[in-house]
Amino acid sequence: MKIKLTYWVAAILLLVQFQTSCIYDKEYVDTEEESLTSKYISFSVNVAQQAAATRADGYTWGDDYPSVLGTDFENRILTGSLNVYAFDVNGNYLATVQNISYGGLQQDEGIYEFFGVLQNETINPDLSIGAGTELMLVVAANCGTITIKDGEPDLEGLTFVNEWDAFISQKSSIPMWGAKKITLTGDANQDVGEIDLLRALAKVEILLDNGIKDKYEITSAQITKSYTTGYCFPGNWNITPTPSLLHENSFREYGKPEAIVNNVNLFPVSSSYMIYMPEIDNQKDDVRINITIKDKTNNNAIYEFSGDRAVRFATYENTGLLPDNPVPFNVVRNHYYRYILTGVGPADIKVICDVRPYAEVNLRPGFGL
Hey, is 23 helix, strand or coil? Predict the structure, then answer.
């Protein structure tokens, strides 16, 4: 199932008043190309699958990976938080799509539709909305207030403040970005297809394998280093469509010392501990997950795994142990790092490091709570 946002572009005098709580029929306008001053555009937005860290170099976000479903929180787009911008193919800002509104849900397809207007009179005079014009549509979702700098939206510097318990808040969401290259038709209405969105956060989860749950219990887990802030948009955000963006080119660590936090707690959720975190250059920092485990078979003895015994962002061998010289991999946006502890002892633990992509999924009914 897919999230679909639809933008229809039509003549100024025939603009429809949209409200996010209502469902509307598609409006088509019979307007001659030479008189076009505005245009209804439509597109669908998919919360895109994540990419496996072990397949990062040389792979794009459009590659086909095994996938897992995101939760309601991970797929949520808040009402009023969707912004769409038009750039030329060289990355120069041209216009902001106006009058973005929710168009409804097609029950048979599970597709959400949205509407907006691209206007000639209010934008960069270099923009033509006639047939053959190539544009890059850039989407910002859940990115907060977007400031204007020198007459343009400051998307390059757009940041978010990460709340460690955001996943339990009904008013919170994960910042997302997406981009698609399109060619305009001469029609007053145009559906430009789907745009994949990447989440600006990585998800980290640690849990016990079902086979040892009755013997052990994780009592705490901490990330040794993280950031309170991250960039909403990845690298090359205004010149590369989402599916064509190389993993290594999308990485964009915030990197400022004042935003560093140490020993950040993961939150207990059901039978696991988890956190959402901004990107981190792990080649430089070698971030680890310190955990404590209670041995219920040995008088509730507590085992601490930190330092060289901590869980690492690295590839584990089939034995569940790290190689002698593990190579850490970066913590990258839109990745799901899942660590399953399969064996526990006083001296070491055995780990399956499972990094998966998210599937394309629909927003639930009641979009934008």
Answer: coil
**Sheet-wide strand order for 134-141:** 93-96, 82-87, 134-141, 176-183, 189-199, 38-47, 111-119, 98-106
Cα separation of 216 and 297, whole Å?
A: 8
Correct CATH for 202-356 of 2.60.40, 3.40.1350, 1.10.260, 2.40.128 = 2.60.40
**Which amino acid, one-letter code, is at 5?**
L
Closest alpha carbon to 75 in 3, 180, 5:
3
**Domains in the chain: boundaries:** 12-199, 202-356
Integer Cα distance of 47 and 178 in angstroms = 9
Contact 130, 79 (CB under 8 A): no
Domains 12-199 and 202-356 in one fold:
yes
CATH number assigned to the domain covering 12-199: 2.60.40
Q: Whole-structure pTM over 0.85, yes or no?
A: no
Report whether 144 contacts 83 (CB < 8 A): no
Question: Phi/psi at 282 (nearest 5 deg)?
Answer: -80, -15
Mean pLDDT of successive 10-residue segments in the chain (369 residues)? 36 25 37 58 63 44 49 76 89 88 52 71 63 89 89 92 64 85 87 83 93 95 96 86 70 94 91 92 91 95 94 91 89 89 90 67 28
Exposed, middle or buried: residue 26 (CB in 10 Å: 0-12, 13-18, 19+)? middle
Question: How high is the pLDDT of residue 102?
Answer: 67
CA atoms within 13 A on the CB side of 351: 25
